[in-house]
């Protein structure tokens, strides 16, 4: 509520509660957008390969993730512009390129997320994965049919995110991992895998993910220099939530592989749950997979469409229906075509180029007074950002080179 006569903001208790819910919702939206089916497989794979030394990879990636996300969220808040608008302000036309990459990647990964949700329901109940995918899409669409879609999304991702943490924590305790060894090797690794670090950073803040929470805060009216302390806390909270889930899963996998179990290469995470808790654990994995998938469906659809909203007033006016259309399209492709392997491979290659492109434009914007006014961006954040741009550019080009032969 605004006091026009005095020219400042007066917040009621209801306003404060709504703002607090939006901040927490933004953190969980970002975190659960990162924690999809690929996140589960990726974490299991690297844990089996590096054992306790994967703890060092996680620790290093957390530091880099925080650096990347603080840069992005702060500039979005200060400029009061979405990612594509910032990119266009830095270089006319760049925002359209960024939006194109984000939407292509978003559609492809959403097909994978929809597929993962169907598989999750199949594991839980034995239902055909395609039917499970349709059920998941229906639930996700219901969230966006609400007039208060933003608030509904905040609540859904928050509670499902909390459920995900509890389920994985249970399996972690049951698997009895060597926690002391994991802590020690997190600081003194037996081997240093730079490729794993860059891959984990890309999986946590790559593509559309780091923009999901930043755009959500903008939609909730949380912006401007005065909001920076809240934006900082929420940004770090999002990384810590995603990292907590990764650490718990890492320990759960470590407990299982330390017992001499070889993970199924087709579904390594499922092996962990099944070994640790038997048939019940396998069914629980289905629930974990479904929760990870549906929250990623919601995050991918919301964020991808947010990159289109500023290009036409009709998209902005009916953005909820565009999000619903995005989910429907992804579901139809999965149900009638399948995983669309070529599209997924191409999107994976392009996704590696999105973070250096978007973060690079953010860093240029951070020191452009036409975009951020008199705001002074911390030098240490700029240095952090430049390091991440260089590392992810290297990985992105490498991935693209490796991928092209598969497409032609």
UniProtKB/TrEMBL annotation:
Keywords: Membrane, Transmembrane, Transmembrane helix. Coiled coil: none annotated. It comes from Oceanobacillus polygoni. It is a multi-pass membrane protein. GO terms for molecular function: cadmium ion transmembrane transporter activity; manganese ion transmembrane transporter activity. InterPro entries: NRAMP_fam (IPR001046). PANTHER family: SOLUTE CARRIER PROTEIN FAMILY 11 MEMBER, TRANSPORTER PROTEIN. This is Mn2+/Fe2+ NRAMP family transporter. One of its GO terms (cellular component) is plasma membrane.
